[in-house]
């Protein structure tokens, strides 16, 4: 195992020391169990690896043992591993173990960076030091985690839609989940909607995350011209739906502009009582959001799917306090103060609308924009779920 491990080269002395203590049986019991658990995981994973994604065939006598031929057999060993090489399951466990050791506890950011290095540079994978394997970047279902790394990559290779189709719909759903249908597992109720919304849902989520940036805690640049062209190429029609938002966003990123993007957009959308997402899906200009009268009270839903969930267990969701229950009528800098998203200097906001370090937004800049949160739940026209998902609600952005 150590011949292919991240400990190789970087911590040679420590590796030798650990190997020696493992062999001589002088490890403390706890340490011994940790090594045993990780080693057991790697061995079990490596033995099962050539069978991953192969169909289950009860009663089949095709395989009788683990001879090396199995790794070369047609329809097996999908990722071209060698006997002894483990899959993403062990790699990601090793990343987690490294992160826990290095940080002394769970640190999501550290772990995420380790996963990033795992996927792109072979950190903790079984073939990072395998001279015969030309491509070192990682493989397997852990690739779903990789989907979320695309934001770090300047030169993107695939769109989110293409990756979703490949990894989620074909790989996970098509090759794994659908095989369980013969055992009575049914297609998820709203699968067709998910597939239909694949084009725009992530772009709409970006509008939410960037549009309300001070109440989050991230700091990203808006897509530049090259990226916008790339979006248009991958999602024809993208610019006509989202271009205006990004142009406005960029006009408002400097506090000296005196403009706050939410103010430019005008009214806010409603929020879903079940998932707490805003009514901007699948697309802000064609939202399935609605408010529905339930027991004499207006309740907001982002989609018929969330309304269906609510109806199954209304008591569970009735008491949820959403965004407007909390801060309807507040000036926006008070919302951010209440969240505590202000840096230790007591004025600079944690989140910023750009990576530009020149002039950062402060809570006073936000206050000067004088943007008041106002719930659309009191407004006319009334939107009800009776009109169905296919009907477009009012243009909220
Ligand atoms: Zn919802």
3D architecture notes:
The chain is mainly alpha-helical. It has helices at residues 12-24, 29-48, 88-103, 108-121, 143-147, 160-174, 191-196, 201-211, 225-234, 238-251, 261-265, 304-312, 314-318, 323-327, 332-339, 363-369, and strands at 282-283, 286-287, 290-294, 297-301. A two-stranded antiparallel ribbon has the order 1-2. The termini are far apart. The site of zinc ion has 8 residues, from loops.
Provide key terms for this protein.
single chain; 397 residues; mainly alpha; two-stranded antiparallel sheet; 16 helices; 4 strands; 4% strand; binds zinc ion
Question: How would you sum up this structure in a few lines?
Answer:
With 397 residues, the protein is mainly α.
Q: Please work out how many helical segments DSSP would assign.
A: 16
Number of DSSP E strands = 4
In spatial order, strands of the major sheet run 1-2
Spans where pLDDT lies below 50 across 5 or more residues: 384-397
C-alpha-based Rg, rounded: 26 Å
The biggest sheet amounts to:
2 strands, antiparallel
The residue fraction in helices comes out at 40-55%
Q: Which small-molecule ligands are present, each listed once? A: zinc ion
Query: What is the string of SSEs from the N terminus onward?
Result: HHHHHHHHHHHEEEEHHHHH
Structural class: mainly alpha
Instruction: Report the sheet-strand fraction.
Output: under 5%
Q: What is the CA-CA span between the terminal residues?
A: 55 Å
Characterize the overall form.
globular
């Amino acid at each position: 195992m150590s011949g292919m491990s991240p400990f190789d080269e970087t911590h040679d002395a420590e590796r030798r020391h650990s190997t020696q203590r493992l062999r001589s049986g002088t490890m403390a019991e706890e340490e011994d169990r940790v090594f045993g658990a990780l080693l057991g995981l790697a061995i079990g994973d490596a033995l099962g690896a050539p069978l991953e994604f192969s169909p289950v065939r009860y009663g089949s006598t095709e395989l009788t043992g683990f001879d090396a031929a199995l790794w070369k057999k047609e329809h097996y060993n999908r990722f071209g591993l060698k006997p002894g090489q483990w899959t993403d399951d062990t790699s990601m466990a090793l990343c987690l173990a490294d992160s826990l050791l290095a940080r002394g506890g769970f640190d999501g950011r550290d772990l995420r960076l380790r996963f990033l290095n795992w996927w792109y540079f072979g950190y903790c994978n079984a073939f990072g030091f395998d001279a015969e394997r030309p491509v070192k970047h990682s493989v397997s279902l852990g690739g779903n985690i990789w989907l979320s790394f695309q934001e770090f990559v300047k030169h993107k290779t695939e769109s989110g839609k293409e990756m979703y189709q490949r990894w989620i719909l074909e790989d996970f759903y098509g090759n794994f989940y659908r095989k369980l249908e013969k055992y009575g597992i049914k297609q998820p109720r709203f699968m067709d909607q998910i597939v239909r919304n694949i084009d725009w849902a992530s772009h709409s989520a970006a509008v939410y995350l960037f549009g309300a940036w001070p109440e989050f805690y991230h700091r990203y640049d808006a897509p530049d011209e090259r990226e916008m062209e790339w979006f248009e190429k991958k999602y024809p029609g993208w610019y006509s739906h989202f271009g205006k938002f990004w142009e406005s966003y960029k006009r408002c990123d400097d506090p000296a502009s005196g403009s706050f993007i939410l103010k430019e957009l005008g009214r806010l959308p409603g929020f879903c009582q079940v998932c707490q997402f805003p009514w901007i899906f699948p697309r802000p200009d064609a939202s399935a959001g609605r408010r529905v009268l339930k027991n004499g009270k207006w309740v907001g839903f982002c989609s018929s799917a969330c309304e269906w969930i609510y109806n199954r267990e209304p008591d569970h969701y009735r008491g949820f306090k959403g965004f407007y229950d909390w801060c309807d009528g507040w000036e926006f800098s008070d919302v951010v103060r209440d969240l505590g998203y202000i840096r230790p200097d007591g004025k600079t906001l944690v989140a910023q609308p750009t990576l530009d370090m020149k002039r950062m937004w402060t809570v006073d800049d936000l206050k000067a924009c004088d943007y008041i949160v106002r719930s659309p739940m009191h407004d006319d026209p009334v939107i009800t779920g009776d009109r169905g998902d296919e009907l477009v609600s009012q243009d909220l952005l």
